[in-house]
Amino acid sequence: MNGFRSWDLILSTAEIILNHSTDRITIRQPDDWHVHLRDGAILEAVLPSTSRVFHRAVVMPNLNSPITSLDKAVAYRKQIENLIPKGHDFKPLMTLYLTDDISPDIINDGFNQGEIFAAKLYPANSTTNSSSGVTDIKAIDPLFAMMESIGMPLLIHGEVTDPDVDIFDREAIFIERELIPLLSRHQGLRVVLEHITTKDAVQFVEDFSGNLAATITPHHLHINRNAMLANGFRSDFYCLPVAKRELHRLALRRAATSGKECFFLGTDSAPHVRGAKESACGCAGIFNAPVALQSYAEVFDEEDALDRLEGFTSLFGPKFYRLPINKNFISLVKQTYIVPESLDVINHDNSIERIVPFHASKKLKWTLSV
Ligand code: NCD
Ligand code: ZN
Q: N or C terminus of the chain: which is more exposed, having fewer CB within 10 Å?
């Protein structure tokens, strides 16, 4: 029934055992500005990992049957809310999946009713469950015009899908071919370039003075493409956009820890069961929700920038989205935390599948104090 129960037990054991340091950091409760919660049994299994740490989360709409209508967004919000564990103060912020033929009215109605927080642009076939995405970005300008006029943010998976473009260049080329023209056609549109992975994106977002921000994931701060491809292919590190060369990882670390308000937390936690990751055509996505905050803290510590952690995790996102900052606080302590090797998903036929988290079986230096 409760796919998360065994995980919670392991977490509390790990957190209690290894208590031998006094370093502690207390920050405003963070929000996750980009998360995949899925639905059904996986949602049930993964939701507590997000809702125990984050107060709000922007929930991505790329379900097997994508969230392309107001009714679907409402039903999905209710499905999530029904599964929030007691004692977790969590608010899902719903997104609409843009397609070639969505009507601007859905955007207007969804926004006015407070049901749709933002719209997500997936170039068709750019990533997991994006086959119904947008085939011609300019052709949906009327949707962007509506968003611009009502103030709804646009969240972008920024990769071109042209088969002639090398997968490692897809983000940089997207900026040139699609993002720059889009931003100039819609100068009042508020845009988030999601899960950036390149120095090109860092530089572009930094230099753009306007309504543009970017989220940065924990995994792109920790790994470069060697983690996935050297010494055997490791599907656990396969996500989209793919991790790039080391110089890009270093640029992302500088951006995240810079204290610049245009860069903020978005985990892109993207769970897939083991069999879906390890197959002839393995799914892209890294499940990091249970370790995301600890993982970011480790990066900020290594960069000697713990004093800037709170801005990145808890202040810059609300500022961009024009939301209040959270009232509660959360603490991390410098204690070794051994990340569990997997989380069980208990399917409705009682079969069990596993999801392997980021940093599985590894030691992290920071742990949540709950
Ligand atoms: C995400 C997923 O699995 O839904 N995968 C990923 O590699 N990040 C989709 C996405 O955000 O690209
Ligand atoms: Zn994502």
A: N
